[in-house]
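Troubleshooting log. The previous run stalled partway through. Resubmitting the same two chains, unchanged.
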Amino acid sequence: MKITTTALATLMVLGIASAAHADIKLGASLSASGGAAFLGDPEAKTLEMLVEEVNANGGINGEEIELVLYDDGGDPNKARTFATRLVEDDEVVAIIGGSTTGTTMSIISVAEGEGIPFISLAGAIQIIDPVREFVFKTPHTDRMACEKIFADMQKNGITKIGMISGTDGFGASMEAQCKEVAGSHEIEILAQETYAPQDADMTPQLTKIKSTDGVQAILNPGFGQGPAIVTRNYAQLGIELPLYQSHGVASDGFIELAGADAAEGVRLPGTALLIADLIEEGDPQKDVVTAYTTSYEEKYGEDVSTFGGYAHDAFRLMVDAISRAGSDDPSAIRDALEATDGLVGTTGTYTFSADDHLGLDLSAFRMLEIRDGEWVSID
Amino acid sequence: MTAKQKWIQLGILAVIMLALPAFFPSGYYYRVGALIYVNALSVIGLVVLIGYAGQISLGHAGFAGIGAYACALAPEHLGLHPALAVLLGAGVSALMALLIGRPILRLKGYYLAVATLGFGILVSMVLSNERSLTGGPDGMAVPDIGLRPLLRDMGLRVSGGEFWYAASALVLLLGAWIALNLHQSATGRAMRALHGSETAARTVGIDVARFKLQAFVISAVYASVAGSLLALQNGFITPDVAGFMHSVEMVTMAVLGGVGSVLGATLGAAILTLLPQVLTVLADYEQLVLGFVMILVMIFLPLGLLPSITARFRGRGV
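Second attempt completed without errors. Output:
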């Protein structure tokens, strides 16, 4: 009798335990290897770390999260296959990912077709414009970066600029966006040059811009090593005009690559994540950014990047939505996501609505300047 | 290869295509199946070029890119139906192959490899840089081919995965049939003759330049149609489809499976499409294992998987 009771009790405990472990399956397809690994690698690490954290703290509504993560290597075709696999085979309730615009656009058609909420980590505006029912994103758009930069130029009385941009996806997209919004900020682009991502010297282009009459500042939409070379050439040519870089190089790696001397005075729009130590007490982002930075650097022994921050925000948004939805039904999660109001992330404070699936405004960007090899907020 | 062998090969292919879905636990497998057939189609093109005519190309992804972007661009700018855009893409690819094939097929070996490589890179650069037309590296959307609603009206409800599985399977069967016919035809024999010895072929009166060019054009059309199919089923396309790595992938599939054999090409495409999906469990070691498998195959089965294995079964050794 006693044995039966014990057995029964054990079974019940097991039953409850296994019910409590009816995991929530969260899918991710990131570019952890290949050309876009500098995006996907910190993103993947961030997701793995956060899932561990949430599960150690009892999961969401008592259910653990199971992360199904695939590396699409930046290949849109693979991303689409993995998205299909996540939805059809792994039966995840939501997807985070798409490190690049190309992989994101491939995942979108699967997520939209099957009705699975999807938060993208890529920059382009066409991801959320037009608004798609199941698609959200965490990074600012290039257009917002342009607007932030132009606003700072206006503040400093700059109206005529030269632009030098990379011909890679990021540089070309931002160049186009900047041209579109320049007019509304009364900024005139007098000179415009480009360079290929693998170019090792931009002196000729810069000399050309320098010799254009009336240029008051130079803007460099670009990504990777290009902007660092532009910055070095800039110093070598002794150009005195203010140099604006994009959010694409908002990392300590950029200062190292360009050299602190050459980078002195460079301005760019960045997120709170870059200046974790400088955020004032009482700033709503302070706690979020500090917590993420501390645990990431402790776990992986490397600096956080803006890109990992995008994944952090996407994950927080998803966890918040799932717990508010109170179920793991994809359309319930979608509805909860859209109702997100004032969730503080590392990139900014998110408030989604039916016609805004980005949910950030310009205040999320902070205008930063490099002084003595350090980031300083100049807002 | 006799006519009987041809029908046996096609029969095997058809039976496998029909039987496989019975073992599919979820819709995801239809997607993988469709990808295998699409890859196999472009690899069969390379069987004609490399296996029959003995010429190399490291730029065939360029033709896949032309086919893919034809399906994205023609409906938007010319108002063409996506299905017709496939044909337009194939036509443009054939014309392009004809134009560039004439001068570069005079080159042999490494020189030909480098010249074709240049062509592939050129196409992918144009697709990346002509932002106003192609959307640049961010890619562009491809309109739906609209056949599924048509089938639904006819009372046949199929999912996207099932539809593309069937469509790719049919096109692959057609492609395999054409390639197998070509093998037996006078043209195919001429190609194989010039593969064996260009000098000997010329001596017996074969117009070497013409047959090389034919093989090049035919394989370009295969790659183009495969690119179109990929674009249509993904609904979105980026210049990666024309990238150098895609060209290398095609040649690797052909060589791994057995470059002279249509079924071998399909097997090579199947293995190299499946392996990355299977190896996801190994996460970080995926690339390592993939490379290792390929090295082993090349050392122990130098003719490629299928020809080496069938040769062993017939007791002729390798």
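Takeaways: Chain A has two domains: 2-140+287-361, 143-275+365-377. The radius of gyration of chain A is 23 Å.
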